[in-house]
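Give me structure tokens for this 204-residue protein.
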Amino acid sequence: MRVSVVEYGIGNVQSVVNACERIGAGTRVAHDGAELRGQNPERIVMPGVGAIGEALGNLRARGLDGALDRLVVDGGTPLLGICVGMQMLGDSCEEFGSHQGLGLVPGRVRRLAPEGSGLRLPHVGWNTIAVRRADDPVLGPLDGEDFYFVHSYALECPDEYVLATTEYGAPFVSAVRRDHIIGVQFHPEKSSAYGATLLGAFIG
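Here you go.
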């Protein structure tokens, strides 16, 4: 299986590469759109940490948005977005202004806890996912398991795309699926055995 990990200057790429290699999946890092297209991947992983505005700017400056359109939207290559990589899948984000997302999953990224809620941000640590689709081949077997989170914003989207939710003061969307496009708000590469199980199921 040819697996490409998208590098756009703000993701925790090496830890994702290491996690994939621990389960026996060889990976290649793509630094720009031409490189990603040239790798002709069978699976694409898009990790991310930090501010979404900078992430989107870097992604577009490197031509990776166009490559993702060609490979994922037109070509049907499965994509896994992790943390900020998931948030970028949406239509827009309100973090430090307003930003246009990739529009691969309908929805808007909003602050996780409203001002005055008393909830500490970022939401850091282990938390449980409640999977809505028991038959999902990637997350279905992981219902009720704990994964590692670090985030202050979350994607709000129509119910038809919600794959899993998690409680932090109130439920938020912790995983989405639109056909062959999956996003997870948590970090499987930091989530021990269950994270490895998720990556293995996605990569196949």
